[in-house]
Structure formats: structure tokens, C-alpha cells
Write a structure and sequence with these properties.
CATH architecture: Beta Barrel
Number of strands: 19
Strand content: over 45%
Order of helices and strands: HHEEEEEEEHEEEEEEEEEEEE
CATH topology: Lipocalin
Distance between the termini: 42 Å
Number of domains: 1
Number of helices: 3
Helix content: under 10%
Largest sheet: 18 strands, antiparallel, barrel
Structural class: mainly beta
């Protein structure tokens, strides 16, 4: 059973799953091989750790999920000290996997030295759609030891400045705890807890009520040995709940949705020589979408469960050139049903396998760019090339 701890996103950038006023109940789904794709498109561990401890940096990964959709993950963080006791920060985040996500922008003004207080906001062109919050923290987001507690009011001015008679009651809020403890050698722990308590939008015309609540979390634990090996695990869980209730005289049926996305990744990384590093791991991933409607034909259930083992080998050819080779083998279960049928139809129960070959261009403390391609070997008689992927980390 996949662990469903609610321990949140890895970086001090905006929360991964911004609500953004999206009350829509939709039939989101994934293809059978998408969790293998997702794993292939994640940044290597050492790149991620460099990103976490950088003050000004950008990371991105774009890769094919299907003939219609891309996986897209882009994050930017900038910070500038204003003297000794103040700083201003800016961050962007957009990560799209099972649905397109909006670009989230956060601006923060921080005051203090070891202990800090700050105000921050999620900026929007329309003032009534903006969000405003406050935080207290220990150290700065790029420090090896970091703790931040924050509260955010989303749509803070909506009820006062929006056009029309729609109102939030209560307005959406985000409570968040971020933490990091990186030792020079040894145990590294980093995580986040995010909670969005239930909020309600009351629509005047046509009369209806829409609700939303969410929780998300991620925890990364590493142990780095002076002997050259690293062992660790990462656990992530996200849950979103939406509801719709029509008012008197309004057409439509009441409906409720629960979305869940989670994974557990356990890995071992070993330096084999001054120029070779190998990794092996086990990843259990799950995505479910349940829609219950008062109109049975509108009900929907989707389940994708994937368990995969993987191996990675990185060879450094020169100061600026590295080769990466990957192998993934996974077992996929996919179920889907519509129209209120409780017995899900099994659409996939199969083994899948991919190999990947990539070339990375590296300039220490400046950039790392990986050009990666994957190949399906489980259906090599029907289709060989699976897709391409570009990953990069830039330091400013």
C-alpha cells in the first residue's frame, strides 16, 4: 500500500498544486505508460540538490506523454538582498502532468537575519484574483537549514472588488510548513506540508454552490556516505476534492469529485569510479479520479497503478560532457468505468519496459542541459521510439 503521508513540495517556490479558482469537475486520466514517462523526465538527484541550495536558478523538463500532450515542469527562483536585514524574492512554477496547470508567480519581501518575517503574494492581472499572505522563517530558502511557516489568503479581495454577486464563503486559504536540514555529510531531510481547508463559491446567476479542499505533501530523506554511496526515499501525496450543488431552479445535477496522485520512490546511488555513477530504485505510483453524480450517466472512475524498477548509469567523458543510460521495467494496472458502473473495466494489466539514452552538457555553477530519448522495448515489434525529453538547470 502506497504511503500517503502529507509532507509537501521540495522547494521554497510556490505550492505545487495552486487552486487558482478551478472548481471544474473533469474526467482527468493518464495513459498506461505515463508513470514510466514521468520518471524518465525527472531531474537526476545531484541536479536537484544543486537546485535546492542555489539562490538564483531555473530548472525545467519537457517531454512527450502522448501524441496530444507534453509533460511540462518549469521553476524559477530569484532573490536579492536589500542590505543586511531585508531581501526581495520572486518565483515562478508551472508543472503540468495529468492536466494543464496555470503559471504561478510569487513575490516576497523578507525582513530579518537569522529569523525572518515576510509578506508575499501570488500576483494576478485582475486584482480580485490576487492572493496575499504572511510567513515567518528561520534562515533563507537557499540555506542548508531552513524552516518556514506561512498562511495565504487566496482571492483576498474577491468579495469586495469582483464584478457580479458571486462570493466566497469562506475564501480559499493555504497553510504551509516547509523544512530542510542538510548536513555536510550524512543525513539530509527536506519536506513540506500544505493544506487548503474547505472553501465555497456561491454563484448568483445561475444559482449554484461550488466547493474545494485540498492537501499535498512530499518528503525527501537521503543518507550520503563518505564512501560514495547515497540511499534514500521520496514520498508524495496529493488529494483534491470538488463539489457542485445547483440552486433552486438551476439545471444540472449535484456532483462530487476526488482526485488523488501519489508515489513512493526508494533508491540507491553508488559511485563506481571517478567517472561513473550508477543508481537503482523502485517506484510505486498511483493516480485515481472518482466522480459521483446525481445523474448516473455522468459518474466516472479512473485508476492507474504502476510499480516499476529502474536503473541509471552516468558516465563522465570530459569536464563538459556526460552520457546517461536508463532502463525501466514496470507492471501497469489501468481501470476505467463510466455511467455509474462500480465494477471498473480493466483496460491494461501488463509489463512495460523502456530504455533511455541521453547526453548532458555541463558548465559547473552555470548550467546543465540533458537531451534525452526513450525507446519502448516491450512492443519493439510495433513501435520503437517512444519520445524525447529536454532537461536543464541554469544558475544565475
Amino acid at each position: 500500500m502506497l504511503i500517503t503521508l502529507l509532507l509537501g513540495s521540495l522547494s521554497p517556490t510556490p505550492a505545487r498544486g495552486q487552486f487558482n479558482g478551478d472548481f471544474r469537475i473533469q474526467r482527468h486520466r493518464l495513459a498506461d505508460e505515463n508513470f514510466l514517462d514521468w520518471k524518465a523526465y525527472q531531474l537526476p538527484l545531484d541536479w536537484r540538490l544543486e537546485w535546492e541550495l542555489a539562490r538564483n536558478a531555473m530548472r525545467a523538463s519537457v517531454g512527450s506523454l502522448s501524441e496530444e500532450r507534453f509533460y511540462q515542469g518549469v521553476e524559477l527562483k530569484l532573490a536579492k538582498p536589500l542590505g543586511r536585514y531585508a531581501a526581495i524574492g520572486y518565483a515562478q512554477r508551472q508543472v503540468s502532468f495529468f492536466r494543464p496547470e496555470p503559471l504561478l508567480q510569487e513575490v516576497e519581501l523578507r525582513v530579518g537575519e537569522a529569523f525572518n518575517a515576510s509578506i508575499f503574494g501570488w500576483t494576478q492581472h485582475v486584482k480580485s484574483d490576487g492572493s496575499l499572505g504572511a510567513a515567518v522563517s528561520y534562515r533563507t530558502p537557499d540555506a542548508p537549514v531552513f524552516l518556514r511557516l506561512s498562511h495565504l489568503d487566496q482571492y483576498a479581495l474577491f468579495n469586495q472588488r469582483s464584478e457580479g454577486d458571486d462570493v466566497f464563503s469562506p475564501i480559499p486559504t493555504v497553510e504551509r510548513v516547509q523544512f530542510r536540514w542538510f548536513a555536510a555529510d550524512g543525513l539530509h531531510v527536506q519536506g513540506d506540508l500544505r493544506s487548503e481547508p474547505p472553501s465555497r463559491l456561491k454563484e448568483a446567476l445561475p444559482a449554484a454552490s461550488r466547493t474545494y479542499s485540498g492537501k499535498e505533501g512530499e518528503l525527501l530523506v537521503l543518507w550520503q556516505s563518505p564512501g560514495g554511496w547515497t540511499a534514500g526515499f521520496e514520498v508524495f501525496a496529493d488529494q483534491e476534492q470538488r463539489g457542485y450543488a445547483p440552486g433552486p431552479g438551476t439545471a444540472g445535477a449535484a456532483a462530487a469529485q476526488t482526485l488523488r496522485l501519489s508515489w513512493l520512490d526508494v533508491f540507491w546511488r553508488q559511485r563506481l569510479s571517478p567517472v561513473d555513477v550508477a543508481s537503482v530504485g523502485w517506484l510505486d505510483s498511483r493516480f485515481t479520479n472518482t466522480i459521483d453524480s446525481a445523474t448516473p450517466a455522468d459518474s466516472y472512475r479512473f485508476r492507474l497503478f504502476t510499480t516499476q524498477g529502474y536503473g541509471e548509469w552516468e558516465h563522465t567523458q570530459s569536464d563538459w560532457l556526460r552520457w546517461r543510460y536508463t532502463l525501466q521495467v514496470g507492471h501497469v494496472h489501468l481501470f476505467e468505468s463510466t455511467g455509474g458502473v462500480r465494477n471498473d473495466e480493466e483496460l491494461a494489466d501488463e509489463l512495460q519496459a523502456k530504455v533511455g539514452v541521453g547526453i548532458a552538457l555541463v558548465e559547473p555553477a552555470s548550467y546543465t542541459v540533458l537531451f534525452n530519448t526513450t525507446w519502448d522495448i516491450d512492443i519493439i515489434d510495433k513501435k520503437q521510439w517512444d519520445g524525447g525529453n529536454i532537461q536543464l538547470v541554469l544558475f544565475f
